Amino acid sequence: PAFGLFIFTIARDPLRIIILIAGAFFWLVSLLLSSLIWFIAVKASNPQDERLQKGLLIFGVMFSVLLQEAFRFLYYKLLRKAIEGLVALSEDGCSPISIQQMAYVAGVGFGLMSGAFSMINLLADALGPGTVGIHGDSQLYFLTSAFMTMVLIFLHTFWGILFFHGCEHQRWWEVAAVIIMHLTVSGLSFCNPLYVGSLVPSYLLMAAAAAWAYLLSGGSAQNLRRFLLCKC
Amino acid sequence: MTELSAHLPQFQHGQLTENFPDTHLSNTNDNSERRRHDNSERRRNDNAESETNGQPQNNVQQVVEHDEEEDEELTLKYGAKHVIMLFVPVTLCMVVVVATIKSVSFYTRKDGQLIYTPFTEETETVGQRALNSILNAAIMISVIIVMTILLVVLYKYRCYKVIHGWLIISSLLLLFFFSFIYLGEVFKTYNVAMDYITVALMIWNFGVVGMICIHWKGPLRLQQAYLIMISALMALVFIKYLPEWTAWLILAVISVYDLVAVLCPKGPLRMLVETAQERNETLFPALIYSSTMIWLVNMAEEDPEAQRKSKSSTYDKQAPANRTQNEDAEADDGGFSQEWQQQRDNRIGPIESTPESRAAVQALPSNSQTSEDPEERGVKLGLGDFIFYSVLVGKASATASGDWNTTLACFVAILIGLCLTLLLLAIFKKALPALPISITFGLVFYFATDNLVQPFMDQLAFHQFYI
Question: Where is this chain compositionally biased, Polar residues type (chain B) (predicted)?
Fold first, then answer.
């Protein structure tokens, strides 16, 4: 579905593609830095201690979430500057792309990159021979991974919109809500393989974020009804 | 096939030597020339544009200044479109290379090394290996430099025939021999039985159409497709025959060399551009990838160098005129001229015109461009750039422990580098090397992702945590 989003909404406009790739790049850099920190922590600690390693991993995840949000903020700053430049350049004085569209595209960029990184090795391995969960792990590994990745991609998109909106209107509580939601979702993934605990709340959170983002973007229940009933 | 493989290195050595000089030289020539041309053309175009935007001729003075500003605006405004026009072929080339590497095992087997890299990397100690790879890289780079200088000298003394012949031979080699090997390996991988007659027919058709498309006339899309295929083939050859550390070192050194060659006043590429500008000629078209095309029809008729030009209907990218090893030979003549032609055509809008209009246009001073359509302005990228980008991504996918993560990271890094380079191009408006920024990003991301991110992601996937 995320890829479908990409094709239908982004692939037309070259500017959006650039913003998307740049968003993916920012996410990648944040991942790089967070894995650097984690790597240093691991090297500096005892590799035999399982619990410590797991604890370090959790710490790494949290740190990475914070870094991701920080980079989202940096990207927002960059896009603000870019919009000013574009407005100055354009002929009729208004930017060819609005900040909301940019927020959406940036969110999709982050999401796609994070989803790709989460899934792609799994997909490659899934092509090969093997049995899922042969060592007593859950048999639903692939399915749940796929769903989790999808929910994360969508969440990134919505967070992007919310985050940018919060920064635009100086409503810092929105920004804080996004960060807390991100931390929550990552934290929920810690109780894998107890999938009920992680997937269900994540989807609920996603629905909430979707509704919030939709309302922020100017939609309303009326719009939705008209769209669904195919009125013009 | 083993026999063939054994012969291949020697063959390739021989051919590659020929090609190398061509590519390097052409690239430099092309790039510098192109850029200059493009820049000057662009300025003229903008002027022309503003003139044609409904303003009468007597407002030329006002318009000129206005044009200067508009020029910049338009450049940046349509920059996004040009970036995408370059993204697509680069992406396609990389996708082809990665797909081949992943599926056809031939290109990841060690079957010997090129004659340019005589030192092996299968040594006992790390120090020995490092030394060998440094020596290998040094030899390769010096070969490239020699070739570039040779091309510049040939160009200066107007030995166009030699360059022309060089380009033809290298493109012949690429189109026929390398694609034959490639096809054979693909068939082997998928266990498809094929008789020699069918293969001969297919290769013959492919090669002949390719020669015509690249060096003469042909539909734009087809030309672009052929250039992409040729770059991919060349990149695959590099990936196969360059040992690991040598490959990374060569990538790093080549981006430095590109920077130096294009920007230093005494650099060969710059000299090439200057010479071409003095003679008011275009650089070799065969070595350049142009994103727009319209001129083909026009060029062949009017330009005495039309043949060369038509050969290199490449993507014109102002910034880097990377060497396309094989393309160089052929593209040298065609590439630049084509680019220039294209630019000219772009400026004057899509002219499907008759020879008369062309003659008229050519007779006019460059400023009298009429219906310039900024949208049509193309951007050119040297084929060597394609090749080295693909080599980087291909090596990443072939030898990385992080596998797809690393490949993806390098891909994004290269695209961002390309964006930045184009941005710089729009700001500085002169020929820029396309390699350094992208290759630097790519290398940094490759090593970082492979060593840092991979263990992290592995652990996360193992526990099914999500960040």
Answer: 12-30, 312-324
